[in-house]
Amino acid sequence: xxxxxxxxxxxxxxxxxxxxxxxxxxxxxxxxxxxxxxxxxxxxxxxxxxxxxxxxxxxxxxxxxxxxxxxxxxxxxxxxxxxxxxxxxxxxxxxxxxxxxxxxxxxxxxxxxxxxxxxxxxxxxxxxxxxxxxxxxxxxxxxxxxxxxxxxxxxxxxxxxxxxxxxxxxxxxxxxxxxxxxxxxxxxxxxxxxxxxxxxxxxx
Length: 204
Hints:
Elements: H1 2-5, H2 9-32, E1 50-52, E2 58-60, H3 64-83, H4 87-101, H5 108-122, H6 126-130, H7 133-145, H8 148-158, H9 162-166, H10 172-181, H11 186-196, H12 200-203
Antiparallel strand pairs: 1-2
Helix pairs in contact: 4-5, 4-7, 7-10, 8-11
């Protein structure tokens, strides 16, 4: 007991100084933020898929109108893609009709239906298909077996392109077929002659 009481007073003073220094260094570090751990609050990022409730909480956006509009847009896009057939698909279907149409002993009502289907398939694409050697035969068949109104429809799509088509190996048969089958129709003949006017010398 006497040994403990007779401890060095200088040693006690130094220990007290060290304790005061450690407390000051801890306070300084806390101010600078060196002890900021994982539990420190971070800025909240608003999620667009979340909706704030009345109680201040957030839940997933379950708005039916938004979801329905997205589904409708996807359905419309799917239907438009299906309706827009490529040239290859159109040509394949046109060839199938052409193989049936060019049979000479076919009934008139069946032929009329095939011509109607072929026009519906080729409408708006006749000039583009006339430039291809295999598709030009389909257009030629349509000009041969179709009515005058069908030939006028073909001519309207080929207007301004007859001089060019007349110089092609396979497409020039379409022009010849229009001249042959449409010679009795004055409207068709005038539109053909008007298109070829000024180009006869080059084509001769």
